[in-house]
Design brief:
The chain is 38% helix and 9% strand. The chain has six helices and three strands. α1 (35-47) crosses α5 and α5 (126-142) packs across α6 (146-154).
Length: 158
């Protein structure tokens, strides 16, 4: 499987970036941030996508790791394990053929420690941050542009 060309993560959390549209933290109680809780939140995000997209995500595996591996970082030309928050590894739907039938399923990886760091440093709502990263990585599955991913993220969950 090949990693997505545009992983989710930022290189400088101190500057404004494409995540300016994500809500900021409220006075709500702190969310549970275990790997299992993140997997549950990611599954919830996928369930809120429009049916025509959700139906094409049945074979996606979502996993939570503490950090990206050296191989994952190298595949997307990154060096710091703190800058990669999510990664899609697989063949986008438009690039699949019947000859790919024996390949392993596509994987969306969420990297817990970089996500926690970004959450603390940016003040975004935890669930909004997870939603942003999951939609971004799922967007690679469909071959979406960044603009299409942003539009999908702005839609009300179904």
């Amino acid at each position: 499987m090949k990693p997505a060309k545009a992983p989710c993560g930022s290189t400088d959390l101190g500057e404004a970036d494409e995540r300016d549209h994500i809500g900021t933290m409220s006075d709500a109680p702190l969310p549970e941030q275990t790997a299992k809780a993140m997997e549950i939140e990611a599954a919830r995000v996928l369930e809120t996508l429009p049916a025509q997209l959700r139906d094409q995500l049945h074979d996606i595996v979502v996993q939570v790791e503490e950090f990206a591996t050296a191989e994952q970082l190298a595949a997307v030309d990154m060096t710091s394990r703190w800058h990669l928050t999510g990664l899609y590894e697989g063949n986008p739907l438009a690039e699949r053929s019947v000859w790919n039938a024996t390949e392993m399923p596509a994987i969306i990886s969420l990297f817990r420690q970089p996500l926690l760091r970004e959450w603390r440093e940016t003040g975004v709502e935890w669930s909004d941050l997870i939603r942003h990263v999951v939609i971004h990585e799922a967007g690679h599955h469909f071959g979406f542009s960044d603009e299409e991913m942003h539009a999908l993220e702005q839609q009300e969950p179904s």
